[in-house]
Amino acid sequence: TVRALEKVPESRIETLCVREDIARKTVEALKKGHPYEELAYHVLRIEGS
């Protein structure tokens, strides 16, 4: 129903990708396996460690 509030269970996935190409492939895989049109994700780059 349009404008209807829907509550669904959520999953949280955390991973450490040591190279940018792996991070990109990981995001692509998440998008492919997600059941909805829009996927909420956040990528952080940690430098200098």
Could you characterize what this model shows?
This is ATP phosphoribosyltransferase. The chain is mainly α and 49 residues long. The chain has one domain (11-49). The protein is 29% helix and 0% strand. The protein has one helix at residues 20-33. It is elongated, with a radius of gyration of 14 Å. The mean pLDDT is 88.
Indicate the topology.
Blueprint: H1 20-33
Give a short summary of the structure:
This protein has one domain (11-49). The protein contains 1 helix and no strands. The protein is mostly helical and 49 residues long.
Relevant terms:
N-reg_PII/ATP_PRibTrfase_C; 49 residues; 29% helix; 1 helix; mainly alpha; ATP phosphoribosyltransferase
User: SSE string, helix = H, strand = E?
Assistant: H
| Sheet having the most strands | none
Write down the Rg.
14 Å
Residue-averaged pLDDT: 88
Alpha-beta classification: mainly alpha
Question: Assembly state here?
Answer: single chain
Low-confidence stretches: none
First-last Cα distance? 48 Å
Strand percentage, roughly? Answer: under 5%
The helix fraction, in percent, is: 25-40%
How many distinct helices?
1
